[in-house]
Amino acid sequence: MKPLYLVIQAFGPFAGRHVVDFRHALDCGLFGIYGSTGSGKSSIFNAMTFALFGEAVKEKVDNATLRSHHAAPDVPTLVEFVFAMGDRQYRVVRSPEQERPKKSGSGMTSEPHRAWLFDVTGKDPADLDDQNPGSKIAERKLGEVNSAIQDLLGYKAEQFRQIVLLPQGRFETFLTADTSQRMGILRELFDVSLYRSITDRMKERADNAEKEVRRERDICEGLLQSGGFAGMDALATGIEEARKTVELKQEELTACKAQGAAAFAALQTAVQQDKSFQQYAAAITALNGLQQKADEFAVKRERVSDARKAQTLVAFDDQVRLERKGVADLAQALAKARALRSAAEKNHADREKAHALLAERKDEFEQKRARERDLLKHRETLLGTTAHRGELTGAIAAFDAANATLEARTRAATRARDEAQKCQTALDAERGNQVQRAGLRASIASLNADLTAALTFEKKSREIALTQAELAKRTGTFNLVAQSLEAAKAAMTEAEAALFRNHAALLAGRLTDGEPCLVCGSLHHPLPAEGGGESERVAADYEGAREKLRVGRDHYDRASVARATAEAHHAQIARDLAELKAPAQASTQVRDTLQAAEANLKKLGVDRDLLGLEAAVGTAQAAVAKTDADVEAARRARDAADTCKALANQRLEQALASIPADLRDSAALGRAIDEARRAIQQYDAALKTAEEAKDKAKEAFIAADRDATNAESNLAEARRKLSAAQGTFDKACAAAGLSPEAYQASKPFIASIEALEQDIWRYATAVDIASEDVRKAEEATMDLDRPDIDALKKAHDDAEQAQKRADEACHDARHVLETREKLQKDVTARLCHVDKVEAETAPVRELARYMSGKDGAKVDLETFAIGAMFDRVLEAANARMRPMTANRYTLVREAETKGAGRKGLGLCVDDIYTGRTRPTSTLSGGETFIAALALALGLSDVVESTNGAIRLDTIFIDEGFGSLDADNDSGTLDRVLTALHNLAGQTRAVGVISHVPLVRQHIPNGFEIVPAANGSMIEARF
Fold first, then answer.
1. Residues in a beta bridge with 537
2. What pLDDT sits at residue 190?
3. Computed from CA positions of residues 83, 85, 91, 96, in that sequence, does the dihedral angle turn out positive or negative?
4. Angle at Cα 262 formed by Cα 260 and Cα 265, nearest 5°?
5. CA distance readout (Å), 710 to 336, 345, 700, 926
6. Shortest CA distance to 165 belongs to which of 6, 40, 48?
7. Which sign does the torsion angle of CA 442, 447, 449, 452 carry?
8. Rounded Cα–Cα distance for residues 79 and 94 (Å)
9. What is the pLDDT of residue 249?
10. What percent of the chain has pLDDT over 90?
11. What is the DSSP secondary structure assignment for residue 114, as one 8-state letter?
12. Strand 954-958 relative to strand 989-994: parallel, antiparallel, unpaired?
């Protein structure tokens, strides 16, 4: 940043409108800003800082205090600052929040803080005003204006105070600051965000690893806690206890099983004994029951006797019934035979008809049989094409893949050609643009020279009139001051004479004849002075006249200097104008032409690297050649794959030529075969069934006809036999001694004779057996007591329940053991995984720890990176400091070891006299100033060389030289000023703010701040 023009109005100690034109100062390289303490030297930098950033040099200063107390109420506080950045010029106008008189009515109103930013490249700062403000960049909105200015400068107000304006004592603070404070300053000046980002990413990876380890350990701890264990040792103890519990429960189960077996054996023995008692009781009961049935079996014996008699008549009765039944049956059979004959006759006719209909369709199904044979042949053919189908499928897949590759490579080739065309177009355009730029730059250089010459001539032409008027003004002021001085001298002469007369009168009052005069030593006093009664008034008049004379002489000196300065300035301007050649065109015409050329140059953009563009074209063309070759290779591969696919398809078509298109699918062919086969099978089955049914129907009709004829003959014969059998039966009844009624009554028992006799026999046998059972049961239960089955059963049930409980307890114990063993296995596996993760991520976590500054040195990666930049700052600072201290002192990094804060940017000085390093706080006032100045200059050098966005064309050094007075005998001030001369001559302009006369002698060019009762004035001295 290069300051060009500063306008201050009603600001600080400056009541009116004052201009600080830095352009002459910049030409000098090294210049000063001088004035007595409190005159307003620092207010110039307050104005610059306020114009750029909206705040004063000192932090936390209320902007409302910036308004001048000397200013009239209707004069607003305003700062205009024109500065250059490279070849561009900018103008910022800013006014703080302030009170102003209302435009209508009485009273005051508040004006808000406002700011404007303009581009004024190519314009004379002296010509800028509200009617000619420049090209607007941002206005009114403070955020937009501040952001735009910070983007232009590349730093904020804090960095401006550190590297552009080196205020009183501020850089000494940086000199003695700790690592954290220096980090806050250097982080803003050097972009080390990459290292902070790397550190954050590494820390994130380490944190994720630690979170995973903690999560797995928490899971393990949760699993153990859910199982009721405090740790793995407790779990191992629990597993051992569970094993012992399983063994104990197993022993209890074995004992319960033995008890259950004993109870079961006792119960079985008791059941057998009780069964004998039950058998004895049952035998008694059975015998008693049989004995009660004796009368019933006597009746049965009589019934058997009658049945034996009736049994002799049964054959005759049966014959009669048989014959009767035969007649009835034959009659029924005759009717049935006749019906069956009719039905068989009809059925035979129907079957013959159905058979005839099926026989008529024989040719149709013969065709179906032929189709079935053809379909079977098609299936054999289709099965033989499996290899062809596989070949075709593979060929299609290969073709699709080759085609996709061709399409992808075609797209790549298109992109490559587009990129090559784009690169070639850019190269051709840039070649043409560079030719045009060269011409425009040459024209602009010539126009800039013409514009500078025209502006200089016009400026000098305006300045000659201004300096003439200023000279006339200064001459008039000088004449008035000279007249006032002459009047003061006359008044002083008169007052001095009056004082002398008064003194003479006072001495005369002390004269004594014969004694020498105190003034001349004469012993005679012929004419002594008179008066002497107004000594105080005369003395006061004398002192007043003397003060007026002193003030008059001071004003005369100032006016004389001002007139001489005006005369010298006017003479210099006159000489400069005489040396200038009148321009051919006015500056406005040249500026218009220049602006048009600059606009055309701006349209063409910045120069681009032709070699890089040509290399890009070559690369793009090589890419085109490669992609074209790839496309051709892919096309050949695609065509080959297409040929393979066509050949495979042709072979398959040839193999399938004999098969109809709709039957080339195995499923469709299978359905067709099944359909034909089912139809044939159904027809054959139906035809066979119809033929068999026809034959059976014919046989059935013949048989039915024969049966009907036989039935008629049989019925007649049966009727004759029935009459004969009835006569024989009647004779037999009379011979047996039974009436037909008695026969009928006994007849039902004939069939039961054997059963009745068997029943009677079984009864007798049962009585015998029951008697024997009673005898045996008596013998079996002799000398025995009947057992308590319920008690034994209860004991057995209790034993079973005890065994069941023991089995469940044993199962539960084994489950607990298995659960704990599984928990141990799961937790062990997770802990192994945690150990693996810890081992794998240990380097990352360790690196993150070091990069985050958590090691012993407590230097994080960002601090390390800034430390590297700080080393460059110290190197540059020492290049300034050594000449200023006669090579005695060198700034070095300090290894900080105390405290828990961030470390790495500590600072101390290496003293060549003692051969040791010591803290910067031990330096004297002058040494501290030199060290701080060297550090500030070194920081400025490194910031500008490192950060391309920051330009430090001008820096300002505020005070501090007074501390070098005591060292002047050793040449310290001379060395510091020599270093500043060299600095200004090498790279930038340097402004020095000081009240030290010796500094003014070394640096005569600059600005003088003259304080006055109604506000300070700014005078340029060049």
1. none
2. 62
3. negative
4. 110
5. 12, 18, 15, 165
6. 48
7. negative
8. 5
9. 85
10. 7
11. E
12. parallel
Residue 368 and residue 676 in contact, taking contact as beta carbons nearer than 8 Å: yes
Helix (H, G, I), strand (E, B) or coil at 907: strand
CA 140 to chain centre: 38
3-state SS, residue 992:
strand
Q: Look at residue 970 in the predicted model and tell me its pLDDT.
A: 53
Instruction: Please state the φ and ψ torsions of residue 3, each to the nearest 5 degrees.
Output: -70, 135
Tokens describing residue 692: 């068999």
- 1009 beta partners: 35, 1018
Number of other residues whose CB lies within 10 A of the CB of residue 548:
18
E strand or H helix that includes residue 1021 = strand 1017-1021
- 360: CB partners within 8 A, 6+ apart: none
The span from the CA of 198 to the CA of 195, in Å, is 5
Helices 861-884, 193-226: axis angle to 10 degrees equals 150
Query: How far is it, in rounded angstroms, from Cα 100 to Cα 74?
Result: 6
In this prediction, residue 124 carries a pLDDT of 92
Longest dimension (CA), the chain: 240
Put simply, whether the predicted model's pTM sits higher than 0.70 gets the answer: no
**pLDDT value for 967:** 46
406, 635 Cβ separation under 8 angstroms? yes
Per-residue model confidence (pLDDT) at position 8 = 94
Rounded to an integer, the average pLDDT of 13-38 is 86
Most confident of the following: 32-41, 747-756, 843-852: 32-41
pLDDT at 692: 83
Average pLDDT over all residues of the chain: 80
Q: In the prediction, which pLDDT does 615 show?
A: 85
What does residue 52 show for φ and ψ, rounded to 5 degrees? -80, -40
Pick from 63, 88, 82, 52: nearest CA to 12: 63
Q: How far apart are CA 751 and CA 763, in angstroms?
A: 19
Is residue 896's pLDDT more than 60? no
CA–CA gap between residue 593 and residue 605 (Å, rounded): 19
3-state SS record for 436-447: HHHHHHHHHHHH
Residue range 941-965: average pLDDT? Answer: 63
In angstroms, how far is the first alpha carbon of the chain from the final one?
22
The pLDDT of residue 875 is above 80: yes
If you average pLDDT over residues 213-223, what whole number do you get? 81
Residue ranges of alpha helices (H) inside 860-946 are 861-884, 925-946
Report d(CA 446, CA 441) in Å as an integer. 8
User: Radius of gyration (Cα) for the chain, nearest Å?
Assistant: 69
Angle subtended at Cα 377 by Cα 373 and Cα 382, rounded to the nearest 5 degrees: 145
Structure tokens at 775: 């005898």
Confidence of residue 946 (pLDDT cuts 50, 70, 90): low
Whether the CB-CB separation of 108 and 99 falls below 8 Å is answered with yes
* Angle, alpha carbons 952-958-961 (nearest 5°): 120
Which residues does 303 contact at the CB level (< 8 Å), separation at least 6? 746, 749, 756
For every residue of 229-261, DSSP letters joined together read -SSHHHHHHHHHHHHHHHHHHHHHHHHHHHHHH
- Which runs of E-coded beta strand occur in 560-636? none
Identity of residue 1000:
R
Q: Which helix (H) or strand (E) holds 761?
A: helix 753-780
On whether the CB atoms of residues 81 and 47 are closer than 8 A, the answer is yes
Q: pLDDT for 70-82, tens place per residue?
A: 888 888 999 999 9
What pLDDT shows up at residue 966? 43
- Of 85, 18, 193, 195, the closest CA to residue 1019 belongs to 18
Look at residue 969 and tell me whether its pLDDT is greater than 60: no
pLDDT above 50 for 968? no
Q: What's the half-sphere exposure (Cβ side, CA atoms, 13 Å) at 160?
A: 24
